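Appendix B, record 7
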Amino acid sequence: MQINLPLALSSIDQVLENYMGLQKRAHYIINTYRHPSSLNVLTKYWMRFWMRFAGVGFFGRMAARFAALPAPPHKSRPYLAHMNSRGYIAPSVTIYHSDLRLGKNIFMDERVVIFQREDAGPIEIGERVYIYRDTILETGHGGYLKIGDDSSIHPRCQVNAYVAPVEIGSGVMIAPNCAFYSYDHGVLPDKPIRKQPVQSKGAIIIEDEAWIGFGTIVLSGVRIGRGAVVGAGSVVTRDIPDGAIALGNPARVVKMRADMTCDPMAEFM
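Structure tokens (predicted):
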């Protein structure tokens, strides 16, 4: 593969100018060929061409940006991740972690942050995992984070695996604005809270196929069972059994999915 040395050594302003010119040409093509069948062929060719070069590095991120130019925004973009085994990592993703392990075909949306503190354990993300914009994943103080295949974390979530691990199973759906903290601050009266060591009641474990509702907070030492549902706005401080539906602050089991009828309308009659 030959490297265009003058372009590689050009200034940032020149790179941005080239990018803006390419962006204008892409939009020109899209606006010129308005027929749905033509647009479909052109956009697919464009996206597949650039996604061949997508990856974690600088040039891989730029290729991902070019690929996304004609693509619809937000939840219409994860399919780009299936055009390359390295997946789709948006250019604005911040990765500051020395032990990040990525599975195939992952999707990281705009402004996702991957961060490590001192003594951080690894972050392991399985295959076909979708992490949407403004989500922050952190490890530190011996904690690690593991996310299983086919799970999704929606916008503005915070996962802090400090002291103890956070393990998220496969097929887990996490709604926006959720927070997971596997640690807490000491609150003894003899010194300021900010100077006290962090502590934990144990790992956070979310089993396969669970569904965590909007704005849920999950604290340390909690297991959420396989196929469980946690209602929006809940604070989870104790274990939730497999197949349970729980909600409230603190979250309490209100129903078991096994007791529900297969007719969804029957619940409202």
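Remarks on this record: Confidence is low (pLDDT under 50) at residues 1-13, 32-39. The longest strand covers residues 136-140.
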